[in-house]
Amino acid sequence: MSSLDAFARGALAELDAASLRRRLVATERGPEASAARDGRSLVSFSCNDYLGLSHDPRVIAAANEAQVRWGTGAGASRLVTGNHPPLIALEERLAAHKGKEAALVFGSGYLANLGIVSALAGTGDLILVDALGHSCLFAGGKLSGAELLRFRHNDLAHLEVLLARHRGKARRAMILTERVFSMDGDRAPLAEILALAEAHDAWVLVDDAHGLGVVEPGARAPLEMGTLSKTLGAYGGYLCASQAVIDLLTSRARSFVYTTGLPPAAAAAALAALDIVETEPERAARPLALARRFTARLGLREAQSPIVPIVVGETETALALSDALQARGFLVVAIRPPTVPAGTARLRVAFSAAHSEAQVEALAVALSELRPPVAA
């Protein structure tokens, strides 16, 4: 056995012992929040397709038309020949939607945050990240070479202490947070963060991956980042900002410069989905309404977004509860460390406009029978 294989097998054994090994499971997704695993039909409450637009006929038609007209791939980096018309149109619409001068589309949300943060900060700078921020925010900060500090989740007092203590030693400072936190479903106090940032001359990047179109945006940050793969049902990431910032990132964001452009079908699908978000407000409001129906039914804290965590503590408990729900026809995947802090394994319940009230009620009944309700 090679030393590489010995290392891999040893590491896998450690993951198995802690119930932390991940495995890919073939899943077929369909309309109306349906899914199938191992030949079993399930109702999925683990998908980020918050408006069900990945199966909307209008979105699919737009993707198909773009693929026929412009091909299956962009063919090159956008700075070479990959800057096709659907990408240009999508950026114009995203910027208008966010009230910004310009936008830049990346290959994914993870790539966007890697490129944005590392292009705007460097050695001698300060980056402050919410402790529950997404992995890519921390990865972008580490890649930048700036001093990287965590502030306690949504703790304005702690953020202010860190700014007062460290801002004066740094050339520039960035604050990174999320509008809706992906594993907890709560929202950042963005207006207050922006006020602190202004007082300390810091730039705020808000990751809006899980908020776009399904929660009221409230205050806007100078750097509004998000994804095309959740509410918009397609794939890719983006930044909306001033024209000067977008022009700078076009030349300096390595995860943009050195990767192939998004396929035309993905860009066209996102553009069609954005039309639906803007013209069908009742659809956009439905996921949060269903989430609040669910939390009221189980006596949980009122949902702030379409994401409701059922925190159970230990990894094995979360896995067992997920399996029990699957036996009853529900797909609610267990979330384990390191995605969430140790001791906070959970079921992450995600609501979609594609769910029916009856499906939500059935899930609530199943959970109330399998486990007494607990505060999220």
UniProtKB/TrEMBL annotation:
The keyword Cytoplasm does not apply. GO terms for molecular function: 8-amino-7-oxononanoate synthase activity; pyridoxal phosphate binding. The keyword Iron does not apply. InterPro entries: Aminotransferase_I/II_large (IPR004839), AON_synthase_class-II (IPR050087), PyrdxlP-dep_Trfase (IPR015424), PyrdxlP-dep_Trfase_major (IPR015421), PyrdxlP-dep_Trfase_small (IPR015422). Residues 42-367 form the Aminotransferase class I/classII large domain. Its cofactor is pyridoxal 5'-phosphate. Keywords: Acyltransferase, Pyridoxal phosphate, Transferase. One of its GO terms (biological process) is biotin biosynthetic process. This is 8-amino-7-oxononanoate synthase. It comes from Methylobacterium brachythecii.
